[in-house]
């Protein structure tokens, strides 16, 4: 079940994504969530928004789309979340090629598990959600993007279609089950009907918004043929001097500064980061499977659950614990899912596998092997980053 | 306290001396003119009289205040002006210049601010300002490189997302060492491309519109 909300704004999102501070909230975002970039590059979105602010005077500069899922689907992989976000982009911006959009999306997975509902003042489970931001700038034509306008029936059809595609139960269907099924007016469309309704509406939208390819001056393939580009491709003496001057200035000053600042940002907030982290987790699991097995056998799940509840607000009442083949497991009654100790930290508290191992071992004095492992690994991390270590395992190890 | 003591002195001076002084100053020049030219036509006399009235020296209350008192007052005024000036220094730094042009001239100026597709690249006032400041070659220029660089950077970012998405989907099917190793190599290559591509977002030297 996915719920999609859309709003438009002038500024603020880059600050929030970069600094993590939000008006009216005391906690830093990093205290509450683990963030994973799934689409695009934050620096590109920032540049597009800056460009719009500098050269355009639009009422709003970007759309902010949030996609959230029920707890039942909180273990949805980054890959599926990315696919959902890409489908949302395809739906709203069906007139465009994705390459002509400045898009950025990241998933926020809850680190702190509970939040107090501002209306009912009750404790509620925090849910993973996706922030999808699309700049209003059409990068190929320099005009404002034309989003598919909101219509209740079509939006509902889209959510039904999306839920069906990813094997999730739609909240519309759930609501329908509680209604009088004989009431035909309230009947929801089937998936095929929903698909048809979406396509019909998109065709209608397209018929009134035919894009004019001759205006797409900045489409990379097109740009090369324009007089603008020719000015640079076959420069006269003066243009050549200007380009040389710019190039020198860029290499001497700007590039150096850029490397110091934005490159750091680049490596952190790009789509490759999610895949990189996934590889690191797989590698860590493979490298330290003996340690993970020992943790799962020797540590007490009951005390681990208590520790998670105390430190991260885990909903302790939703979990019971059991032992199968000498391995300790926790069972989440809401999803009936079984997880061992390291998986509990990794999947429910959204830690990396190495962080999960470290957190599970803790500072228990009676498990000497755990302390030795951590001391050894921590020393290794001081001289070499975990990522470098993992790369060596993958790349050099295979040679 | 000093100010409070001085104020009554000013009031006394004004009350006793202002009115007679003004009457005297007005009476003397016109009377002397009349004595010299008695035979001149009455109209000319009236005209001269009027001129004299225009040219006459008139005294205000300030002229009659003792010099010491004026000095103290002007010093106080200067001080208050300086302190006000400091706080408003930035606010009053820029000046407004406005001028009128004909509709035809405005059209001409406006036309200079558009590119070949009618898109506004510069405001008319900005163009006028640059021209008036002696930058006689002021001309609206596009920043096609800036837009193009952004379009390329966005396309690279989206293409990388597509690659990552495909690799990630593959990881759901297999976690074999070979596949992981290949993925590791691809990520290193992608990050290297990304580092190069980030140059596209580095700010260019600010291009002046001249």
Which terms summarize this structure?
heterodimer; A: 399 residues; alpha+beta; 5-stranded antiparallel β-sheet; 3-stranded antiparallel β-sheet; B: 210 residues; mainly alpha; 7 helices; 0% strand; disordered N terminus; disordered C terminus
Number of strands of chain A: 10
Strand content of chain A: 15-25%
Quaternary: heterodimer
Give the class of chain B from helix and strand content and strand pairing: mainly alpha
Query: Kindly, what is the distance between the CA atoms of the first and last residues of chain A, rounded to a whole number of angstroms?
Result: 45 Å
Distance linking N and C termini of chain B: 60 Å
What is the 3D shape of chain A?
globular
Overall average pLDDT of chain B: 65
Order of helices and strands of chain A: EHHEHEHEEEEHHHHHHHHHHEEEHHHH
Low-pLDDT stretches of chain B are 1-42, 57-65, 205-210
Number of helices of chain A: 18
Question: What helical percentage do the residues of chain B reach?
Answer: 55-70%
* Helix content estimate of chain A: 40-55%
**Mind telling me the C-alpha Rg of chain A?**
25 Å
Largest pleated sheet of chain B:
none
Mean pLDDT over the residues of chain A: 82
Describe the structure in your own words.
The complex is a heterodimer of chains A (399) and B (210). Chain A has helices at 13-19, 29-32, 42-55, 78-92, 152-165, 171-177, 191-208, 220-223, 227-233, 237-260, 262-268, 272-287, 289-298, 301-312, 341-348, 353-361, 368-383, 386-394, and strands spanning 2-9, 33-40, 62-69, 103-110, 114-116, 123-125, 129-135, 319-324, 327-332, 337-340. Chain A is an alpha+beta fold. In chain A, a hairpin with a 6-residue loop joins strand 5 (114-116) and strand 6 (123-125). The longest helix of chain B has 35 residues, at 2-36. At the A-B interface, strand 2, helix 3, helix 4, helix 9 and helix 10 of A face helix 6 and helix 7 of B.
């Amino acid at each position: 079940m996915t719920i999609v909300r859309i709003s438009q704004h002038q500024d603020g999102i880059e600050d929030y994504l970069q600094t993590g501070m939000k008006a009216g909230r005391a906690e830093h975002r990093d205290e509450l969530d683990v963030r994973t970039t799934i689409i695009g590059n934050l620096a590109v979105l920032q540049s597009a928004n800056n460009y719009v602010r500098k050269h355009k005077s639009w009422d709003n500069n970007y759309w902010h789309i949030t996609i959230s899922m029920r707890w039942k689907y909180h273990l949805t992989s980054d890959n599926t979340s990315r696919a959902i976000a890409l489908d949302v982009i395809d739906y709203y911006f069906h007139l465009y090629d994705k390459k002509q959009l400045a898009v950025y999306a990241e998933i926020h997975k809850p680190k702190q598990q509970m939040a107090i509902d501002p209306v009912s003042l009750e404790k509620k489970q925090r849910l993973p959600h996706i922030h999808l931001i699309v700049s209003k700038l059409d990068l190929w034509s320099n005009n404002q993007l034309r989003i598919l306008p909101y219509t209740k029936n079509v939006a509902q059809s889209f959510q039904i279609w999306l839920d069906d595609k990813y094997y999730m139960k739609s909240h519309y269907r759930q609501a329908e089950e509680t209604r009088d099924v004989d009431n035909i007016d309230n009947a929801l469309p089937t998936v095929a009907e929903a698909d048809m309704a979406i396509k019909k509406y998109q065709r209608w939208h397209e018929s009134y918004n035919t894009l004019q390819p001759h205006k797409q001056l900045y489409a990379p393939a097109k740009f090369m043929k324009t007089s603008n580009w020719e000015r640079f491709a076959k420069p006269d003496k003066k243009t050549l001097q200007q380009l040389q001057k710019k190039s020198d200035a860029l290499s001497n000053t700007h590039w150096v500064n850029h490397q110091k600042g934005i490159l750091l940002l680049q490596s952190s907030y790009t789509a490759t980061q999610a895949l990189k982290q996934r590889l690191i987790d797989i590698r860590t699991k493979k490298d330290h499977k003996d340690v993970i097995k020992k943790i799962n056998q020797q540590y007490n799940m009951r005390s681990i659950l208590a520790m998670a509840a105390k430190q991260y607000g885990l909903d302790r009442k939703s979990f019971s614990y059991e032992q199968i083949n000498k391995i300790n497991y926790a069972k989440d009654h809401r999803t009936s899912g079984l997880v061992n100790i390291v998986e509990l930290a990794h999947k429910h508290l959204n830690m990396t596998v190495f962080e999960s191992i470290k957190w599970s071992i803790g500072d228990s004095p009676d498990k000497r092997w755990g302390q030795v492992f951590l001391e050894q690994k921590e020393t290794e991390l001081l001289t070499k980053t975990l990522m470098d270590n993992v790369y060596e395992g993958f790349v050099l190890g295979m040679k | 306290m000093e100010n409070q003591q001085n104020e009554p002195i000013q009031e006394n001076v004004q009350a006793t001396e202002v009115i007679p002084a003004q009457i005297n100053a007005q009476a003397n020049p016109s009377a002397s003119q009349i004595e010299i030219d008695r035979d001149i036509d009455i109209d000319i006399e009236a005209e001269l009289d009027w001129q004299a009235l225009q040219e006459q020296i008139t005294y205000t209350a300030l002229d009659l205040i003792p010099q010491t008192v004026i000095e103290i007052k002007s010093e106080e005024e200067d001080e208050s002006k300086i302190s006000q000036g400091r706080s408003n220094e930035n606010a009053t730094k820029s000046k407004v210049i406005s001028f009128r042009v004909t509709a035809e001239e405005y059209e001409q100026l406006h036309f200079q601010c558009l590119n070949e597709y009618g898109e506004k690249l510069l405001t008319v006032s900005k163009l006028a300002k640059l021209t008036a400041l002696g930058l006689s070659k002021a001309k609206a220029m596009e920043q096609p490189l800036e837009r193009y660089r952004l379009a390329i950077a966005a396309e690279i970012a989206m293409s990388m997302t597509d690659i990552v998405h495909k690799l990630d989907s593959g990881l759901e099917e297999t976690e074999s060492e070979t596949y992981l190793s290949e993925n590791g190599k691809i990520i290193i290559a992608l990050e290297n491309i990304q580092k190069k591509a980030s140059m596209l977002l580095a700010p260019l030297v600010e291009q002046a519109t001249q």
